[in-house]
Amino acid sequence: MQTQVHTRFAGSGWGLLLALMFLLPTVIPAFGGQRFNARLDNLAGQLVRQSRDAADRLERDYRRSFNNNRRDLQRLYQARMFVAGAELLAQMTREGRSEAELLEAVDFLRSQANFETGWSGLRSTLDDISRELRFGGGNPGFDPGDGRQGGRRNNGDWQDGQVSGRMRWFGRVDDEIYIYVQGDTARTQLISGQPTLNERFTFTSPLPRRPLTVRVNRLRGRGRVEVFQQPSANNNFTAVVRIVDRGSGATDMEFEMLW
What we know:
Elements: H1 2-11, H2 14-27, H3 38-64, H4 70-94, H5 99-113, H6 120-135, E1 148-149, E2 152-153, E3 166-173, E4 175-182, E5 185-192, E6 197-203, E7 215-220, E8 224-229, E9 239-245, E10 251-258
Antiparallel strand pairs: 1-2, 3-6, 3-10, 4-5, 4-9, 7-10, 8-9
């Protein structure tokens, strides 16, 4: 019976997490492959606090109820193991592990956070960590393409005909999402299907806080990309992009938004 339980648990992916918890402290050296990043360290600490709060809430609910089932117990165990994974990510961040290692850890935690529908805050923090890892050290003034527009190096405020700025977005999309673009940030809302994976974006310059018209061009992927709402004073100058993909399975989608 013990062997059966162990096999089922390991197959869920959490067996790997437990193995890492015990093995990594002995194999991770005291030095790492990237500079200390204060924002990244703060985000990792925020994830730990959020996961502890979420796990504490689940445990309080579990203890108050006398009609718990197997799923309730599973949620509690998964929450506590997510805390351990978040603490491990924070440790790896403090030790300056490489970007590739940290992104792998973030992707693993994101896949485990999907089981709990109320964990949107955790998923949002994981997305912030992923963006900081991918773009925190970059130059937002460089065009995400070849870096040239109209024969001039992009300095973040170039003009190309009617184009004064652009955002390029990439992610693995399943079914339907909205992307809310405001200033130099982009926030994804899941409408249907599986959560968006590997999300990243770059801006040449922030979306201005004034009424204007944006347009989108699909660069990769199937399905449809469209402007659902133009930025205006009524929506606090937020552009809303809708992506719909009714095909089987998820697709890697990339588009640019121009204004």
